[in-house]
């Protein structure tokens, strides 16, 4: 019974081979499934990581610098007191920022803020100037007089070298807190203006009443020298002028207009400007990211090209170039040695490749302040990406090329920290960023292009990160290649110790007997694969 089942199965497989692959459902379904899986992964990873920066904003680093020296403000009971409206804005902004985890607010002095801006650690700095309180007091005073008054102004310095979207996120993240702080201070200023208006009215009224009292005394003395009729007239005149001071005070006392009141309710003007202007050729601050992307793409596509070409020359796959199609004799190498040869070839080629990239980039107008360092960074980046690709191919075979695309591109773009800062992507991408080559490549390139090769601006962390990724990839490929060879034999073999170098020479005949003889001549009785163009390329499948 068992022999019958095995015979039926063998007959079914033989019939399938005679019909060809087109009669298999897997032949048609598998490519479509792979395409759909890649589409789902690409969309979920790329859009899921970058589509909603504001919704995922967390610990976004900004700073506030209060340089206000304060001003003397009149008190209600007379005299003056020292007020620092800059502290009110600072405290109000800090209170608003502390309501959630969106902002990582740092209270710094200007020197500290500049130092962190020059290292790329801040996306925005709010600076309250020295004259802020004086301008605020003069604005309140100007609302009651005809004096010109400057509206208090705060400057928001952004860092366009961190990317145009990072600048926009910084502006949008900071504005609500400043507006709320301005509104809170505005309520206090409106009350101060109303109090000043009342004091001004009372002062005018007091002066008018004092003048009226003096006039009444003079009138009474003059009337005392006249008769009863004169005295009666003087008394009637005084009664008629009793409310005159209030009426005149209402007309003469300064008042806060509705326009001034609206201005006082939102007194602070926020002026947004870049901390450092970008040079021409920096692509609005995205030039470092574009260069990092080019390094990644060349490392990925170049490694795949090397893999395809060398596998074809070693007979592991047909060599096809235009109309040329050849099956070359198969050369069986240990997987670890195969990895070292391919990666070594790419690494050697990566040196002049990095130099050519740098030459072309400078030729099209990209500023290159640290050319030699950028050359070595590019060489290292290309070698690291290549090591990852060849390691994944060693581990996963042909599927490793698809895995490389998912790992390096679909997962790499959201974690780079360039298009959208890491503080504005979902937690998943922040966690995997340290194991993504593109993140470290971007940090190195950005530091070299925009931050004067400052080690603390990402150069050191990028160098360490990309070196560790390269080391892990090489070790994993060598270990897995050795283990695969020991367990399954070399590439193309049918088992341990049997590898693709075992060939079967067959006579140039179409006789079925010759074909069958060639099939059983392979070690282990496995069928042989015969090239139609090269009879010497008959090899085990």
Topology, pairings included?
Blueprint (H helix, E strand, L loop, with lengths): L1 H18 L5 H26 L9 E7 L4 E4 L5 E4 L1 H13 L5 E5 L2 H8 L6 E5 L3 H11 L10 E6 L5 H61 L3 H13 L3 H9 L5 H8 L3 E6 L12 H27 L5 E3 L2 E3 L8 H29 L7 H26 L2 H12 L1 H4 L11 H6 L4 H14 L8 H30 L23 H9 L7 E2 L9 E2 L1
Helix pairs in contact: 3-6, 6-7, 6-8, 6-9, 10-11, 10-12, 10-13, 10-16, 11-12, 11-17, 12-13, 12-16, 12-17, 16-17
- What's the rounded overall pLDDT mean? 80
Structural class: alpha/beta
Q: How many beta-strand runs?
A: 11
Q: Give the N-to-C terminal Cα separation.
A: 30 Å
Show unreliable segments. Answer: 497-541
The helix/strand order is HHEEEHEHEHEHHHHEHEEHHHHHHHHEE
Number of helices: 18
Question: Largest sheet, order of strands side by side?
Answer: 4-1-5-6-7
- Largest sheet at a glance? 5 strands, mixed
Overall shape: it is rod-shaped
Strand content: 5-15%
In helices, the fraction of residues equals 55-70%
CA-based gyration radius: 41 Å
What would your notes on this structure say?
The chain has 18 helices and eleven strands. With 541 residues, it is an alpha/beta fold. The strands form four sheets. A five-stranded mixed β-sheet has the order 4-1-5-6-7, sandwiched between helices. A two-stranded antiparallel sheet has the order 2-3. Strands 8-9 form a two-stranded antiparallel ribbon. Helix 10 packs antiparallel against helix 11, helix 10 (287-313) packs across helix 16 and helix 16 (437-450) packs antiparallel against helix 17. Residues 497-541 have low confidence and may be disordered.
């Amino acid at each position: 019974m068992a022999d019958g089942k095995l015979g039926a199965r063998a007959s079914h497989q033989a019939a399938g081979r005679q019909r060809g692959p087109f009669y298999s459902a897997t032949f048609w379904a598998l490519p479509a499934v792979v395409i759909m899986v890649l589409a789902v992964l690409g969309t979920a990873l790329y859009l899921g990581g970058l589509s909603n920066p504001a919704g995922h904003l967390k610990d976004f680093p900004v700073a506030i610098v209060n340089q206000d020296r304060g001003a003397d403000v009149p008190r209600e009971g007379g005299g003056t007191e020292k007020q620092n409206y800059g502290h009110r804005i600072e405290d109000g902004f800090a209170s608003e920022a502390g309501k959630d985890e969106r902002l990582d607010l740092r209270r710094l002095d200007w020197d500290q803020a500049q130092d962190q801006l020059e290292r790329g650690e801040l996306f925005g700095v709010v600076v309250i100037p020295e004259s802020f309180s004086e301008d605020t007091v003069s604005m309140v005073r100007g609302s009651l007089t005809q004096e010109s008054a400057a509206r208090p102004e705060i400057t928001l310095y952004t860092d366009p070298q961190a990317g145009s979207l990072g600048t926009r996120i910084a502006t949008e993240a900071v504005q609500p807190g400043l507006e709320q702080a301005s509104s809170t201070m505005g309520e206090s200023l409106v009350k101060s203006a109303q109090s000043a208006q009342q004091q001004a009215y009372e002062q005018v009224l007091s002066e008018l009443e004092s003048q009226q009292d003096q006039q009444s005394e003079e009138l009474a003395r003059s009337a005392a020298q006249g008769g009863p009729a004169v005295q009666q007239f003087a008394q009637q005149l005084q009664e008629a002028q009793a409310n005159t001071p209030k009426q005149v005070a209402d007309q003469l006392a300064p008042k806060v207009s509705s326009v001034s009141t609206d201005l006082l309710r939102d007194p602070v003007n926020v002026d947004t400007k870049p901390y450092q202007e970008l040079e021409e050729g920096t692509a609005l601050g995205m030039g470092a990211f574009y260069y990092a992307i080019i390094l990644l793409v060349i490392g990925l596509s170049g490694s795949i090209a090397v893999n395809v070409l060398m596998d074809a020359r070693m007979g592991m796959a047909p060599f096809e170039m235009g109309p040329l199609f050849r099956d070359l004799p198969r050369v069986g190498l240990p997987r670890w040695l195969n990895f070292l040869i391919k990666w070594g070839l790419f690494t050697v080629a990566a040196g002049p490749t990095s130099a050519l990239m740098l030459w072309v980039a400078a030729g099209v107008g990209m500023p290159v302040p640290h050319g030699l360092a950028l050359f070595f960074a590019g060489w290292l980046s290309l070698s690291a990406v290549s090591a990852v690709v060849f390691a994944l191919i060693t581990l996963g075979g042909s599927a490793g090329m698809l895995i490389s695309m998912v790992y390096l591109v679909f997962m790499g773009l959201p974690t780079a920290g360039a298009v959208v800062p890491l503080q504005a992507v979902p937690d998943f991408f922040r966690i995997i960023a340290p194991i993504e080559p593109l993140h470290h490549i971007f940090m190195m390139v950005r530091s070299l292009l925009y931050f004067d090769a400052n080690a603390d601006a990402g150069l050191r962390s990028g160098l360490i990160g990309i070196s560790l990724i390269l080391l892990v990839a090489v070790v994993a490929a060598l270990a897995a290649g050795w283990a695969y060879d020991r367990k399954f034999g070399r590439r193309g073999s049918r088992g341990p110790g049997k590898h693709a170098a075992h060939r079967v020479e067959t006579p140039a005949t179409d006789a079925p007997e010759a074909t069958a003889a060639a099939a059983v001549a392979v070690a282990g009785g496995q069928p042989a694969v015969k090239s139609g163009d090269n009879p010497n390329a008959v090899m085990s499948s």
